[in-house]
UniProtKB/TrEMBL annotation:
CDD domains: HATPase_MutL-MLH-PMS-like, MutL_Trans. One of its GO terms (cellular component) is mismatch repair complex. One of its GO terms (molecular function) is ATP binding. This is DNA mismatch repair protein MutL. Residues 209-328 form the DNA mismatch repair protein S5 domain. GO terms for biological process: mismatch repair. Residues 442-584 form the MutL C-terminal dimerisation domain. PANTHER family: DNA MISMATCH REPAIR PROTEIN MLH, PMS, MUTL, DNA MISMATCH REPAIR PROTEIN MLH1. Belongs to the DNA mismatch repair MutL/HexB family.
Amino acid sequence: MSKIQILDDTLASQVAAGEVVERPASVVKELVENSLDAGARHVTVEIQRGGTALVKVTDDGCGMSREDAMLSLERHATSKLKTSEQLSSIMTLGFRGEAVPSIASVARFRLATCEQGAVTGTEICVDGGTLRDVREAGVPSGTCIEAKQLFFNVPARRKFLRAETTESAHVEHQVRLHALAAPEVRFTLIKDGRVAFDLPGTKDWRVRISGLAGTEAAGKLIEVARQSRPGMSVRGYVLPSDYARKGRRQQFVFLNGRPIEDAAITRALRDGFRGAIQEGTHPAAWMWIEMDPSLVDVNVHPAKREVRFHRPHDIRNLIAESVESALRPSDSVHLSPRDRQVDATAVGGLGKSEPRREASQDVSRTRGGLEQADLSAKLEPGDSSVQVEAGVHPDKEVGRSQSVPPAMTPPAASAFDQARERQSELGDPGGRQLVQQPEFELIGPLHDRYVVLQGDEGVVLLDPVAARERVVYEDLLKGAEGGGVSSQGLLVPELLELDVLDADLVLRHQSHFADAGMTVESFGGSTVKISSMPSFLELSDIHAFLHELVHELHETAGTRKGKALAFEAFAAGVARRVGRHEPCRIDHAQVLLDAMFACDLPYCTPDGRPTLVHISLNELDRKFGK
């Protein structure tokens, strides 16, 4: 008997389903694409239990005859591709002819369709790839496809599905993508018998963006006027730079009506915002690209999420120039490129200065502290010039009053080593470890990033950001063990309009937010209400902080640690975000040192970065050849 066997049709379809059908959202994607290709003007998506129990997509498109409906269940059967030459000019969303048979092979499948103007339609039932029934039926014009009990015959695949709320969020995200790609089409989403949204068709993309992203964001949209190059054109909308976030989940790019992901386009959007957003953040954007199909290959990814451009530099430059032109103030049209880059800072409120410095200035103003420049202005002219040039806090007496006389017998480096070695041995009656605090003399800030301290045997550099991370992290852990961190109610609750996936993530970990002193709850749709924050947390922009925290959760969601998302991991994420806002100021240094050495592990952050770095005199002598 030959070792090589030809797979039967059912098994071949189930294998193909491994590429096409990953989760209920994949089923929705394939069926909605077929509806749009059929010319539908109204698409209704209905799901139950996150799509695992039912996915139903109904449209008013052209429909199919009995013969075409039967052929649609065959593998590699399509009406959208006839010759190999057409591969270079694909304009439809689907064209492989594998979606319908693949879905039918892993679900209890029902297809009801009727051509426009026909008297009767056709109904076909398939169970796990096996044809059960074909009959005439009185159905409205268009097509309705149901997929029940997804993966009922492939339990190995079903166990990889997430919670129903997560799967439901992915389905809603997919429908939102198609609603943005085709704003002229009406989209209705029904989840467990309730209408999640019903978006009427419109020719104004801003109306569709407003219906999905919220009125607050829509009110600040900046239009990117249509610009063209041979074979391609682009237009869209962006938000000001203060809406830039760490992740790219707020970027929506559509190529010839197809939602895509492409690194070159992401870089182009950042290039357009150059000088106006912080390093590592990404702007919010909705971009629609029209391109000659011969200049792009859409057949390089099984799910068609990624494409390959034949002229990637052209499309990248076109998008960057279009965004830059939209952000450019009207009075800076004739500025030089260098001046234009500087002037771009006025567009979104963020300049090219270092992110940590900006954060420290914002927080210091919030906490009521005076900036160094403000204090310098209050000093006598003769004093301020010397002190500012020396890089020390303008008020010498403040620095002296907070410095501790160097009365340590062992050298600072030895104190560090001894503390680390003895840390596991020493403890208070409550079981808490104790670390002896070395004595330092405060010298001053270094480039607004570090605090320089003098010990008996050298120089010590304190990283205020890392120190604050350690303090906040342990405060959160101790608060959770003691029944929760003390929180302070907000006078006016903050409403945070999130992406549907982000909202699902926040609500799934609602208890962790509560342990950290943050009260979050659903406010309808994908809007989250924040009614309290930790009492120790003083932020000028709660929205930005929470967006960063959501990104932190997404970063760990796919890891082993993130599956359980222990409170320690959550606390570490909160500490990282709070630490970024810690000011580098000499008048805060001593208080921060005291709080840091009250911690169990003062010498490192939760992820292992050092809070203090010691440079001994011996090392300095070697550097100078002494």
